[in-house]
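Structure representation:
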Amino acid sequence: MKKKLIIIGTCILLALSVIACSEGQPNGEKSEALNGEEHTVKYEYTDEGIIKPEIAEEVIKETSDKVINAIKEKDMGTVSSFVHPDKGVRFTPYTHVSLDDDIVFSKKQIQNFFKDEEKYIWGHYDGKGNEIKLTPSEYYEEFIYTADFVNAEEVGYNTILSSGNMLENQFEVYENSIVVEYYFSGDYEYQGMDWESLRLVYEEYEGTWFLVGIIHNQWTI
């Protein structure tokens, strides 16, 4: 009889432990390490199934600030530390993400980005249609840090600040992602047609958010 009571007591304690854990992590909430402290973030979504902008900013701002500053400084060692360990990072020259044409670099390739002198085909130039055949360094100058995005006019978190005549599909390609857009509206003299932006795309993997996409955006024909 005593043995049965011990077993029943143990089962009750296990059940209470499970309940306590479930109450501490309700559906839609996750514990994130923000600013070195454990912080519970409640993921709220828009009607389109995208993490709400204010939540996205809370989750990713600190990380993305480090990434955009490292990109500006051409510190690809630091950038590589934020790159997704399995997926790498995909480069998109003009807004529309192409799973067929966009190039994907691994963490190791990102580390050697500016040392790599091979010419890759990154897609096709808008309007002309000819191949974008450039070294990584040349691509950086034409399709990555084309403006001082660290001091962007506006920064959007899961909010589209710029759009042209190309199909916007980043949220379809990168599901459950956070997209940070660094945007300049352009000069009045050019009727705003010289606007441009850089979008950094992050996906969560094993509790950490990693860089999976770098999307350049500008006015297209």
